[in-house]
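ok trying this again, last paste got cut off
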Amino acid sequence: MKDIVFCSNNCFVLYSAAVQAKNSDSKESVPTLPQSPMKERPPKAFHQYSNNISTLDVHCLPQLQEKVSPPSSPPIMFPPAFEAAKVEAKPDELKVTVKLKPRLKAIHSSLEDCRPPNKKWKGMKWKKWSIQIVIPKGSFKPPCEEEIDEFLKKMGTTLKPDPVPKDYRKCCFCHEEGDGLTDGPARLLNLDLDLWVHLNCALWSTEVYETQAGALINVELALRRGLQMKCMFCHKMGATSGCHRLRCTNIYHFTCAIKAQCMFFKDKTMLCPMHKPKGTHEQELNYFAVFRRVYVQRDEVRQIASIVQRGERDHTFRVGSLIFHAVGQLLPQQMQAFHSSKALFPVGYEASRLYWSMRYANRRCRYLCSIEEKDGLPLFVIKVVEQGHEDLVLTDTTPK
């Protein structure tokens, strides 16, 4: 009879050879463990060690992070002594039961293998931000500028300057308001006080010609004739551009001639649709923009005289930086003292001028000039109007 001692879980267990013989005879025999070289003990010494652990559960912690696991290894084979042993309870035996739970294995599908593992940073998961733009089906019409302006006006998020006042100047020839297109009637030119004409309306009139300096001659003559001529296209007065064909009485406004598809030539002649050649012509002119200096030749002395004779008016006359406000008047008893060999000094004359400031080097201010009467003699008054300062009034008995 020999005793075998082995250690399990820090507990010494003593098996006797008699117990091993009985277990070998049973059907569910448990194979013996390999004998370790231990010293023989006296046969009469029997030692039994027991513990309070009836069942040992071995657990495997589950994986916290989902990762692609390597190929599974073959299952671990434990010695038969560690398998679940069911032994009849006898006073000479020690009953030990060990249960092993299978290790959890992550099962990955083909789709999950393709996905990258979830990233973590300090215990927080990363989130992906995606943008999805939905475009409605059908043709999309972008908003026009008027709709955008209306939308911004409702939102109130923009600062918009005050609208530019409408240009009420009217051409004496075509009766259209404001400046025209560059490749059309073009800009307005001043003909007389409150009289304006489009550049091309005057230039393409039959009587008008242009000098080398850019002056338009006979514009007033063309205007007087146009007041009696009716346009063949719009049937309104003021037509001055006639057909160059002999004995043709068709006459048009310049804008109406373009609409009627008349043919213009580089030598400043025009043919109506009835007499123009078929097809294209090498001398035909298709572009009417004028970028050179062009003005209406006029008699300025007569124009200023007409301003003075009109009396009250609702317009402003300006020459350079001088703005003319009122001409004033002279009574018969004042004629001798209120004039010189070169000028007249009417009482009530008023004009203003924008000129360099007397206080600052690179700033301009307004000088309001007027003529008054004091002790039967003219008194010249200059009022300096400058922002940030009180008005300064200067007076003297002479203009200088």
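PB: full thing came through this time. The radius of gyration is 57 Å.
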